[in-house]
Structure formats: structure tokens, C-alpha cells
Amino acid sequence: MSTTLALARTFLFVPADRPERHARALATGAGGVIVDLEDAVAPDRKVVAREQLRASVAALTAAERGRLLVRINAHSTLWHDGDRALVSELAAESLIAGVVLPKAERAADLHRLATDIGPKGVLVPLIESAAGLEAAAELAAAPQVLRLAFGNLDFQADLGLACDASEAELVPVRLALVLASRRSGLAAPIDGVTPDWRDAERLAADTARTRRGGFGAKLCIHPDQVAPVHAALGPSDDELAWARRVLDATQAAGGGVVSLDGRMVDAPVVRLAERLLALGAQAAP
To answer: pLDDT tens-digit profile of 10-39?
Structure first.
């Protein structure tokens, strides 16, 4: 599965029927780009959007395609089967990395998509409903799932919630997705969007909550959100310095348990240090 997408901190949406924006979205440095056939495309443009997507991905480099996901329409819609046929075709030619499934609620839907896109493709179920939350563990354990993602706005609508900017009511939901991801050995999940892309203060607060809550990435709706989110979700200079000292101390001790700054350094601490350095190695957008 894609190491790049497993470590990505930002996933930028771009409409499928705006092909002139696809390469520009990739040029923002977003870890992943999600070409959207669902909410961003009007019903009367769904078919033409597929054709535009097919043409635009053909012009991308292999490295760019490795960061490209397609959000198809949900299982219950008229367009789902046509979207499945498209992503199957694109995946067979290695033109996309994988698929985002909105309104994910059943592992059986992910099993079918895994068959469609082949063993090299990845899946990102988007949890947007009470039923999706109930099935989170099952969805996380489905084949080829890379990460879970949270559709915070749709989830509120599904439950009739009226959250303020803090989204305090969603803390247990977010924790459930982090736990489901950890239990299935997935990379940390992807948090939902900040809807007002012009509000830098709100974006900073939301991203800080994302990191505190154990999420490893965030969905973005505008290119201006990519750089600040990437920076906020990455390790600080102090954390990277600590991680290097941990690995240096462990190497000097021949791999055994050591003490650093009065604290025991064992295997879990070493894994944390390695993860921080892996995240820090990601190029800034």
C-alpha cells in the first residue's frame, strides 16, 4: 500500500469536472489529492465529469498518480455503478492510487471496491453517519483500507447535531475512529474539513484539535489550507531532536533498553521516535 498516502497530512479536494485544477491541486504539495465525483459535481454533470477525469489523469506523471484518489458517489446513488466502472478502469492502468467511498457503512461495499481496483489500490472509507460509526471497526478491517476519514459536516447533519466551532459533541466520535484505526493497524485517520477556508484562526484551532485527538491528517477544501495544516500536523523541532537522541542512544546501547533524560527508552518509545522522524522527513508543501 502507498507509504506516501499513509504518512500524508493533507488531502485536498478538487472537483472532477474542473480538470484544469487537477494538476494545480497536486502542485500545492498536498500529500493526497481527492478528485471529487460526489458533492462537488452537479447531478447533470456526473457523466461528463467522469470523461474529464479520465482525460486529465492520463496527462499526469506516475508520481502524481500515486497521490491521486477519486471520491466516487455513494452506494445508494444512481451514479455509483458508473463510478465503480471508471475507477476499475483507471486503477487497472495505474492512473490512480485508490478510491474514497463516501457514506461508508458496510464492509461488503469495500470488498467489492477492492475487487474493482485490484490489490495495489487503496481505499479510504468516509465515516459520515451513525451507521458508519457503528460499523467503523468492520470498515477499518476491510481489505485494502489505508485510512479512515471523518465527514464531520455530514455526520452532524445525519444526527441532527448543532455543533459550534469546537465540535465538542464529536470528541467521542473522533476517538472511536482513532481506536478503530489503531486496532486494525491502520495509519492515523483523516479528520474532517474546516468549511471557511478564509478563517485562518479557525483552521489553526481545528488542526490543533486534529493532532490532540490522534488524527494524522486533515481534509482540505482550498489550496490555502494545505501549507498551514501540513506544518501544524508535523513534529516540532524539539520533537525531532528528541527522536534523534532516542535512536542515537538506542544504537549506542546495541538495541537494548536504555535511559534517556531519566526515562526508560524501550521498544514503544523507539517506534514513536521512528514515526516522528518519518513524518519529519516529508517535504513541506
So the answer is: 999 999 999 999 999 999 999 999 999 999
